[in-house]
Amino acid sequence: MTLAIVRFCLVLFCVVLGAVMLLKGAWAQETPTAANWTRLPGTAVDISINSQGQAYVVAPNGTPWRWDALEQRWRKMSGDFVRISAAEGNRPWAVNADGAVFRYNGLWWESKDTDVADVAADAQGNVYIAKVNGDIKKWNPLRSEWQPVEGQAYRIALDMAGNPWVVTRDRRIAAFDGKNWGALPGRAVDIAIGGNDTVVIADAEGRIRVWNDGQRSWQAVAGVEGVTAAAATPDGGPWAVLTDGMIMATTLLVAPEKIKTEEGRAPEIKAPLAVAPIDTAPVAVAPGVSAAPLTPSGAIAPPAQVPPATTAPVQTAATLSASPVSPQTGTTGQTGTKTVAPAAGNDATIDPVAVTTNEDITFVNTQKTASALAIGRDGSVFGLDAAGNVLRWSNSRKQFESFPGTLVRLAVDALGNPWGISTLGRVFRHTGNQWKQITGATGSDIAIGGDGSVVIADASGTLSKLNDAMTRFDRISGQGLLVAVAPDGIPWTIRSDQLVQRCASSPCEIFAQKAKSIAIGPDGSVYVVSDKDLLMRLDTDTKTFDVVRTPGHTPQSVA
After folding, report:
1. Which of 97, 102, 146, 481 could lock 137 by a disulfide, CB 3.0 to 4.6 Å apart?
2. Is 49 helix (H, G, I), strand (E, B) or coil?
3. Which residues lie closer than 8 Å to 152 by C-beta, 6 or more apart?
4. Are 481 and 457 spatial neighbours (Cβ–Cβ below 8 Å)?
């Protein structure tokens, strides 16, 4: 009897040890990968992104919302659901609380089946459902019917080959390679696959993990806890929905602005207004091209002791009158140009670019349209066209020329090299020979000061500064959606309510002026384009902004 008990205990020990070793293998990489998470305003219960970057969420009240990457805001859709999947051509699929699955046809939702627990679709037209009883079925569009597929699932995602990866009701993970199912280690509550086949799960402990196929293990991603739903961007960047509904992202989905120009006017870079009601769905999010207003509580410090926004007539500085733009008759003619050299005298210790000229400002028509401009300390001028292509001004040819790269935000360093933010929110710098990414950094706006300080603002308005080794961005005090940097390295920003502020310390110093664009010259001159489309310059004595006259033209942004 005693021998039998000993044998039983040994068997039990081996079983337990085997289970522990299996779990250890599943989480083999226990040193979490560092990631910069950005909180996206609003709340959700489910989220989905396809390989084309089309993103959808379901709000806690069941309302589906679609991300508009051009206008940088969430757009409300009809319906009442608990699960949603991005699909091809902005035609998502969704499941309601009763288990009915629907497809959006562009006008309304079409019912396709019942007793469904989850749905997964991709940009290639593949659609799978997991039934309440665990059965898997694939949609046949030619016959308009569901065809059974071997296997069991409760949550489902599709890789770039259109094959399903699943999580079962008991949280086991499996993948189909087109012929056979293969079990994967670990436990999960949700699964998603990015456009580069990066597989992301929300594990049973509420963490985000990414599949490492070489090590056959799940690698933890640090920064968030309590994850209930997961998604992945086209480049594999994880997104997560937390237990309190917060939406978190490591990679932003942004797109070049759609520019509408009028004859004789520069295109406008304008921050769209949020349209999603609070407490029902995400508000305008992730800026990139045009930083959208943020409205959730706690995202922005309350504007205590803010001077009232100017309601009295705007002060006009007569000495700041700008000469009218001199239109050119040809692409190379420079009639009306006026180059002003700073009056630095003969003192070699004075940096000429730090001297403010008192000459009139003369604008010259370059015969080129752009969506953004940036000027370096050395006078190098770069721009972005309507499609985000980089342009560089040639002094010898007196025109803008193409420069390698596509961006949505732009800045220029002291050496005349451009920096920028891509459509995915990633930060790049040009070395003079090639573009290099600052790994791990995502932003929605970027600016460079005369002292070389590089500052970015992310979707939530958080400011970060590049370290001296140029390897990462570190969080700094201050907040804002649009940023500029003074020669002393102090950031100036425009808040979501369009108020201008100087962030030398916390809290930032707020000015009673609303603006939609801001720039600071190497001499420290602060220029803005007001919310009334007026070009204005800061009077450092009165700390008010004076109008710079631009007869016959309406400023839209400033550099």
Report:
1. 146
2. strand
3. 134, 135, 136, 166, 168, 169
4. yes
Three-state secondary structure call for residue 26: helix
pLDDT band, residue 41 (cuts 50/70/90): confident
pLDDT at 488 over 50: yes
How many helical (H) and strand (E) elements, i.e. helices and strands, does the chain have? 1, 44
pLDDT at 106: 86
- Nearest-CA neighbor of 121 among 100, 95, 97? 95
Backbone φ, ψ for residue 282 (5° rounding): -60, 145
Contact between residue 328 and residue 364 where contact means Cβ atoms under 8 Å apart: yes
| φ/ψ of residue 425, rounded to 5 | 85, 5
Six-digit token string for 11: 């068997």
* Tokens of residue 167, six digits: 């999580």
| Domains in the chain: ranges and CATH | 25-249 (2.120.10.30), 318-329+356-547 (2.120.10.80)
* CA atoms of 130 and 215, how far apart (whole Å): 29
Residues 6+ apart with CB under 8 A from 1: none
Rounded alpha-carbon distances, angstroms, from residue 130 to 139, 156, 224, 554: 11, 7, 28, 56
Residue of 131 and 459 predicted with greater confidence: 131
Tokens matching residue 111: 């019912």
Name the E strands within 350-408.
Answer: 361-364, 372-375, 381-384, 389-394, 399-406
How are strands ordered across the β-sheet holding 208-212? 155-158, 164-167, 172-176, 181-193, 199-203, 208-212, 217-221
Distance CA 437, CA 414 (A): 18
The pTM of the whole model exceeds 0.90: no
Contacts with 170 (C-beta within 8 Å, 6 or more apart), sequence order: none
256, 247 Cβ separation under 8 angstroms = no
The b/e string for 146-160 (b: 16+ C-beta within 10 A; e otherwise) is beeeebbbbbbbbbe
CA neighbor of 464 nearest in space, from 455, 316, 291, 122: 455
Run of H or E including 292? none
For residue 297, pLDDT over 80 is answered with no
Pairing assessment for the beta strands 426-430 and 473-479 based on DSSP bridges? unpaired
Q: Residue 287: is the preceding peptide bond cis (ω within 30°)? A: no
Specify whether the CB–CB gap between 191 and 166 falls below 8 A: yes
Task: State the sign of the Cα–Cα–Cα–Cα dihedral 276, 278, 281, 287.
Answer: positive
CA gap 117, 156 in Å, rounded? 10
